[in-house]
Structures are given as structure tokens and as C-alpha cells.
Write a structure and sequence with these properties.
- Helices cover about 10% and strands about 35% of the residues.
- The protein is mostly beta strands.
- The chain has a single domain, classed as Immunoglobulin-like (Sandwich), CATH 2.60.40.1240.
- The strands form 2 sheets. Strands 1, 2, 3, 5, 6, 8, 9 and 10 form an 8-stranded mixed β-sheet that branches. Strands 4-7 form a two-stranded antiparallel ribbon.
- A hairpin with a 5-residue loop joins strand 9 (about 140-145) and strand 10.
- Mean pLDDT is about 80; it is low at about 15-20 and about 40-45.
- It comes from Actinomadura napierensis.
């Protein structure tokens, strides 16, 4: 019994020193292929494996809509990797100007032209709308991967 407790203590000591958090994903500017921020005008722009661009948009409500307010962005996802990229409307979230995160699943089926569920081959693009319920001004849009860790984030252009 003493050996088990000692072993668990060693494992606990080792794992507390591990940093399991990932580095945050860089925010892409509203201009394709450039990072956001003060250095976005530099000659050497950063390349992103998943290029994500977003612009504020208005959606046409579908027959399933309950008539509530929707805040939307038109996104373009470009696969710049050498592997297939899964795209799904459930993989997106919108953060407003007050830093409140809005899940896109809240408005699924409420509007037309939502981004399609698809697999993108290398260098393919997908474009469509991502909306969330409520009336707010979108600031950034984020996309997760199939494991629901953030894969790309972009500023929303006006």
C-alpha cells in the first residue's frame, strides 16, 4: 500500500509541472493572410494553416426561424494544410465587442446560406454564413477542429 501511495505522489508531482494548455491561436486580420495587430503591416506576414476571413453580414431567415434577432458573419475558410479539413457550422463561435462568446449552434436552421458541412481538400475554400442568436456587433469569429480545440480565429471586417 505504501508503494502505491508513493507512486501516486510521484506521478502527481511530475504532472503538476506539465503545462497542458495550448498556446492561443493567432487572430487573423480582416485582410486575408495577415495577422491582426500592430505588426500586420510588416513585409513578412505570418502564414496560417487554416485561413479564415470574416465580414459582417445579414441573413435571410428560413422557414424554421422563430423570428428572433440574429447576428451574422460571412466566413471563408481556406485549407492551407496538406490534409483534409473538416468544416461544420457547429465548429464556429462569434465573440462580440463586449468579449461575450456566442455559440453558432444557437441559431442553426434559423437562416439561409449557412456554411456547409464538408471536407476541404488542400487549397480548397468554403464560404457561408455563421450566425448566433441575439443582437450584437461581432468582433472575432473562431473555428474549432474535430476535437473542439481552436484551429483558427479572425477579426470581423465591417
Amino acid at each position: 500500500m505504501r508503494k502505491i501511495i508513493l507512486a501516486l505522489g510521484v506521478v502527481a508531482l511530475i504532472t503538476t509541472g506539465c503545462n497542458l494548455e495550448q498556446d492561443p491561436v493567432a487572430v487573423q486580420s480582416s485582410e486575408a493572410g495577415k495577422p491582426a495587430g500592430k505588426n500586420s503591416g510588416s513585409a513578412r506576414s505570418k502564414s496560417f494553416p487554416i485561413e479564415l476571413t470574416a465580414k459582417r453580414a445579414h441573413a435571410s431567415k428560413s422557414v424554421l426561424s422563430d423570428g428572433g434577432a440574429l447576428s451574422c458573419v460571412k466566413v471563408t475558410v481556406t485549407n492551407q494544410t496538406k490534409k483534409q479539413l473538416e468544416v461544420n457550422p457547429l465548429y464556429f463561435s462569434i465573440t462580440d465587442t463586449h468579449s461575450t462568446k456566442h455559440d453558432s449552434s444557437s441559431a442553426l436552421g434559423d437562416y439561409e446560406d449557412q456554411i456547409a458541412t464538408t471536407s476541404l481538400a488542400p487549397h480548397e475554400k468554403a464560404t457561408g454564413l455563421v450566425c448566433a442568436k441575439g443582437s450584437f456587433r461581432p468582433k472575432t469569429v473562431a473555428m474549432t477542429n474535430t476535437l473542439f480545440s481552436e484551429a483558427a480565429r479572425a477579426q470581423v471586417a465591417s
